[in-house]
Specification:
Layout: E1 6-11, E2 16-23, E3 26-34, H1 39-53, E4 63-67, H2 73-90, E5 94-97, H3 99-106, E6 110-115, E7 119-122, E8 130-133, H4 134-138, E9 143-145, H5 149-163
Parallel strand pairs: 1-4, 4-5, 6-9
Antiparallel strand pairs: 1-2, 2-3, 6-7, 7-8
Helix pairs in contact: 1-2, 3-5
Length: 194
Amino acid sequence: MPSDPLILAFDTSAAHCAAALLRGDSILVSRTESMSRGQAERLMPLLQEVLAEAGCTWRDLTAIGVGIGPGNFTGIRISVSAARGLALGLGIPAVGVSGFDALAEIGDGLPAIRAPREQVYVMLPGQDPALMAQKQAESLGRLILNDDADAQVRAIVRLAAQNWQSVSTPPAPLYVRPADAAPSKDTPPVLLDG
């Protein structure tokens, strides 16, 4: 068995399902599928296909990397939950990687993650992540947008490979704003004992 760590990373924080497998410094397999819905159903089969294509199994993995957002609320929950479950079941660490960190690995400029209504999530140096109009963000300088899911998942797997030995807590979602869905304001029905 090769001594280089084998890291599987994935991301469903936008309208895609993306995965990459890295051994040492080499990406063995990288796969991205565009989809606005269905990431929960597609993620595990996609990961299995990536492992099979590289001739690996779940037990060969050293660590898991996962995109923690910001982005699509449900997509982030899908990936982070899957990463935490796999890490627990396999007894390996899971490393959360923010979209900002992944985009910063891709190029120079201000990492910006697309949001609804022509807005973007940005994180200015020394500040908390924020949601702002894309035009406002563009006025701050060159944006690195999350338009290339393959480049992003490749950056996630590389960052996870750099940090898996020092991770001490499970990955957690990075939400900048609350979910669009809200609990019903209707009075719940009365339950009758019968």
